[in-house]
Design brief:
Layout lengths: L1 E2 L1 H7 L6 E2 L6 E2 L1 H5 L2 H31 L12 H15 L1
Antiparallel strand pairs: 1-2, 2-3
Length: about 90
């Protein structure tokens, strides 16, 4: 880790005045030294977001696979058309 007096004067001891070797930008002292608990938390959060993204993609793919097609032309229904069909189907069940 390294810094200069000019950077310390400009940003202060809590600002981005420190450079950790192997990094491409200046960081605050706390980020330069590191925080293993924070790093673990961020890794868990990234993993959870990735799982949620995959789940949403899977849900979208399943929904598209269930999307009905027009008997006349063979094209898949648009969302509006699908909602209209579902609405009339639900109303006819009552």
């Amino acid at each position: 880790m390294a810094t200069t007096l000019d950077l310390l004067r400009e940003h202060g001891p809590a600002g981005p005045a420190f450079r950790r070797f192997g990094r491409d930008r200046h960081q605050s002292l706390l980020n330069t030294v590191g925080n293993p608990r924070r790093d673990a938390h961020l890794a868990r959060r990234r993993t959870a977001r990735e799982k949620e993204r995959r789940r949403e993609e899977r849900h979208r793919a399943e929904r598209e696979a269930r999307r009905p097609t027009c008997v006349d032309c063979g094209q898949k229904f648009t969302d509006d058309r699908w909602k209209a069909v579902e609405y009339t189907r639900d109303r006819s069940r009552r």
